[in-house]
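S., here's the first fold you wanted:
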Amino acid sequence: MPRPAPKRIASTVLNALKGGVVPRVGLEYIAVGRAREIDALLRDTEIIADGGAAFRFIVGRYGSGKSFLLQTLRNYAMERGFAVMDADLSPERRLSGTGGQGLATYRELLNNLSTHTKPDGGALPMVLEKWISGIQAEVGADTPVSDPAFDKNVRGRILALAGELEGMVNGFDFARVILLYWEAYRYGDDTAKSNALRWFRGEYSGKTEARNTLGVRSMIGDDNWYEALKLFASFLVKVGYKGLLIMIDELVNLYRIPFRVTREYNYEKVLAMYNDVLQGKARHLGFIMVSTPQSLEDSEKGLFSYEALRSRLADGRFADQSADNLLSPIIRINPLTFEELFVLLEKLTQLHTNLYGYTADISRDEYVAFLKVEFERIGASTHITPRSVIRDFIEVLNRLYQDKQLTITRLLASSGFTPSSDDGAGEIGGTGEIGEFADFVV
């Protein structure tokens, strides 16, 4: 039997799910299904670790579990020694735009840089200082810190590694800023450290400011932020990580751009990044972008409205439309089965009882009865999502905990129980036809 979740994790998971969002921690305690999809995406990480690159789209309707799958993979990747960046697109964060929207996405990615030892983002200073400390420890084994040769030897090692980046776009300036960060770290100059971090995060207003502050000729901006991500992927591997995985959610916000020309500039950026990966121009780098079927396939406004993308991503003549193709660049998310939803409810019960320290006497028939009520509501076959099912069930557990005389059977029979509505923005699971219960109950 798996170990119970710590109370702080159980509380975070339940509160997040009750609020309709995917928790960043504790997913292993509620994960059901998706094993095949996760295996396929983890195989991509093996390619990335071997020096290759990968690009995938995860596609599913609202509530199909896209964001849940993304967060689960994020945690798996960090456990396996990868650095991860993630960002949600929005009207202010796109891949391209005249108002700095592409750079805003880059900044969000950098702010969310996460590793196994710092999974909540903001890992850039830690990564730099851990690497510098390691170099200083190696040099210090042979040369005392007080010896003038100590700084010279550390500088030499940093220059040797950073110099390998100089053949890449803006690699020379990237290497220089790394060196400046070490000097600031060595002598405790917090202002200089902050200036270096600002350059990495693309926070300089112009090249003149960057040159006057750091002595570099370039800056990270709207036109070259993708190249900066490739630099980070190479650097992270050189300092001990297996690669960089970049996750971009809410691609639907590109579909919602009202102006065709602006949409196409963004789709052109997707194409450029996709081509770069396929042509072997990126190393140790993986992209996962998350979309809905409509924002992908709509011939007027979706990604497939951009012919160059459609021709690369659409299934070929011999694709089996009745089966999942996990080798395709597009992974389509299917609904969770009733069996998987049943297991999910059991896992939620275990989290809830461990958190509040009580015993819930819920029979198999009561779990099934609850699911049946949820799926028999009007419109459930096309609109219900596990977001609403989970939200309702957590509320049921709250009621059971506070009223020890209450049972699920009595609660479902009461006029006070009304399944919650869903606004279509859920991101946990799927749907099904109520007739499938016949096979499940037997």
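And the second, which I think is the more interesting of the pair:
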Amino acid sequence: MATASVWSSATDVHGAADEGYGPVADAFRANFAERDEIGAAVAVYRDGRKVVDLWGGHRDGATKAPWEEDTLVTMFSTTKGVASMAVAVAHSHGLLDYDAPVADYWPEFGAAGKERVTVRQLLSHQAGLCAIDERLDLEDLLDLDRVGAAVAAQRPAWEPGTRHGYHGITLGWYEGELLRRVDPQGRTLGRYFADEVAAPLGLDFFIGLPDDIPPERIARIHGYSPPEMLLHLHEFPPRFVLGFLNPRSLTYKTFGNPRITGLLNEYNRREMQRAEIPAANGIGTPRSVARAYAEFATGGAALGLKPATLEALKLPAVAPTGGRVDLVLHIESVFSLGYVKPFPRFTFGSSAELAFGTPGAGGSFGFADPDVGIGFAYAMNRTGFRLYDDPRELALRDALYRCLGERPQG
């Protein structure tokens, strides 16, 4: 298909969309004109080929510095899906089995009643390990031995496998320590991802920002403070907001240790960007996230992914025995192997079966849709007030699937 350049001085949008994908560019421009976008980017790959690559606005809303083609942005929990790609590669390399006990690879993990927790249960937020009792601070996060010992000692908040609850910050540390134990080189998750995923695919995405990345490449997050959530109970689940603000609740404890991990604007600090927080602080371009998901959507040859790994990611989630109500988010949710799967309230992709991805706080989202060979990613620097289906992201995704002749999104 011919590629049409997309540039508008009125909205400061740059990039290109292939013929037939113009509605995605229209929706992206409308986000600036109608939905208070500050800066953002979106990318789509179809059958391994880039068909949409757009960016625009300001990487810093205060200084009006422009969002450039190579601007990097923190993607919050969209990082979870990217980090879980590293675990999937390890699975394809025969380093772990999704149905084996985690303690087989990491003996210390078996403490406090966790000896039978499987890798699948851990990655599917069913292990009851969403909060950490041992107090940590930002300095501790730079010491992965310290973090690994703290999470290994944690007692589950419920009997593993019976319920699930969003492991909003801890999931990445559990994945990271598991990888360190199974990788013959003992690499951290950030290093393993850089070597085994980012390098083969040429990605601009980091879990633990290198010191040589200049600050002027990084978009400034314009985030809300926790009390502002009370003004948006028509968008956020009310019980989630009340839990997030209540120090005695499991929701608060999930995002409150260290407290800075639950405060969006703290991710502008270089120290936070430098730490490996593989559930929350990945920094990169949406183009890179879309490229990575496209690889998973189209066979994974460049990463040496085995069919068994890809089939495991596409299969429906194994639900906990106690149902799908999330004990942290206080909504229905569906998780599998580090990813969200489509469910009735969050219908992304072309079917209810195969797609997998993760949305991030404020509106970002990346996913793979193997049904139609799609890798999609959107990220922004002004944070919205939804757990998923941010109106800006949803407008882009819905426009894309209308172009494909597939079902409406959202």
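Why I say that: Residues 70-367 form a domain with the Beta-lactamase fold (CATH 3.40.710.10). The CA atoms of residues 136 and 258 lie 5 Å apart.

Talk tomorrow,
H.
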